[in-house]
Amino acid sequence: MATISGNVTDLSANFVPQVWLDWVYDQVTQTNNFFKSGIIAQDPILGNQLLQPGLYVTVPHMNAIDTKLKTQVWNNKNDIVTHGMTSGTENDVKIYEDQSFGNSDYDDLVTGARTLDQITAQFATYWGAIDEQRLIQVLNAAFLNTDIATAKSFNVGKEKEFAATDFTRAMARMGDVNSGKPTQMAVNSGTYNYMLEKDLIVTIQPSVGATPIETYNGMTIVQDDQITLDAKGTTAAYIFGSGAVNYSTATPQNGVTVDRDNLQQGGISAITHKRVVTTHVAGTAADMAIESDPTKWKDDLETGTKALFKPVDDVRNIHVIKYGFTIDPDYVIKGVNSEVAPDASTAAASSSTTPSK
Questions:
Q1: Nearest to residue 329, comparing CAs of 350, 313, 300, 299?
Q2: How far apart are CA 346 and CA 326, in angstroms?
């Protein structure tokens, strides 16, 4: 016989609160390895000029002496003809940009999130990602210039499967210039794994306990999935020497601010960064004949259809080579190393030949 009578609590009919754990603060997965590889050199000329008035900087150049002039016959019958030096200018566009992130007091109180702490911790990562994207945009714009593409690229626009002979032909674009001699190559991770499958990569152990160094033909390999890899496996390798790209950034007065509005949305806070930055391949300059309005350069770089840079004087001063090629589309992975899915028809027809070392 039951000892307890009446109605008992039915938990299924009551409100069951959602279990809400502590916030997990995600980190950006973009590595920015290309930008951090050593290709960047702090620009010794433009660095001190970024906060000066103006939208671009003009750098005067005294050109090198003309070594093609033939010597003159020295005798007592002919006057000596004196030659002058020539000069020119180099323009570099300054990009003015800002970004702001914020939160509302109400949202943080209700959710328990530490939004401003996350914003503060991640802002440097944000600018690092922007710098990486712009590095690739600047390289793209430079190689759209016919003179630069002819002298410093190989098979771009007529890509075929990666081959050792083509890599050597690409390397020939450096000439005999020792300064800035290429020591590294930056590739998409799909290319790296393709080369690994083909047994093209040599691993060097510099010392016991040290991180192994992976190389191809003496070039240290830098993996970066910001380097474009399309559906057909078309991509490129950037072969470069230390400091091949000049870069400088400056924070103006009031460049970092924390602002409060106690009325909007019940009270909000915003962290805002402003900066002035310039990036260009060493040995190149802004081609103002292509785009004369400096305020349009940021959009032009992002669009990627204009040859915004030209050689300053001698293309031999440019220490970046672009080698275009294809890899097996099976290495194209949407969301991992590419923005697109692999082309199934191309993957089915891809060659299984092994490139020579």
A1: 350
A2: 11
CA gap 219, 241 in Å, rounded: 10
Give the span between the Cα atoms of 294 and 90, in whole angstroms: 14
Collapsing DSSP states into helix, strand and coil, what is residue 291? coil
**Other CB atoms within 10 Å distance of the CB of residue 248:** 23
Nearest to 282 by CA among 152, 161, 159: 152
Looking at the chain, list the stretches that DSSP marks H as alpha helix, in order from N- to C-terminal side: 105-111, 115-142, 146-152, 164-171, 189-197, 297-303, 344-349
68: left (phi over 0), alpha (psi -120 to 50) or beta: alpha
What distance in Å separates the CA atoms of residue 220 and residue 191, rounded to the nearest whole number? Answer: 14
Q: What is the pLDDT of residue 210?
A: 73
How distant, in Å, are the alpha carbons of 50, 225, 231 from that of 298? Answer: 16, 22, 27
DSSP 3-state of 71:
coil
Which pairing describes strands 320-326 and 153-154: parallel, antiparallel, or unpaired? parallel
Q: What pLDDT shows up at residue 110?
A: 86
Contact assessment for residue 280 and residue 113, using Cβ atoms and an 8 Å cutoff: no
Only one residue has tokens 């930008």, namely 35
Q: Consecutive sets of 10 residues in the chain, 357 residues long: mean pLDDT of each?
A: 50 64 86 96 84 90 88 94 87 95 89 89 95 98 98 97 96 83 95 96 80 91 97 97 94 95 90 96 95 97 98 92 97 96 74 57
How do the residues of the chain divide into helix, strand and coil, expressed in percent and rounded to 5?
25, 25, 45
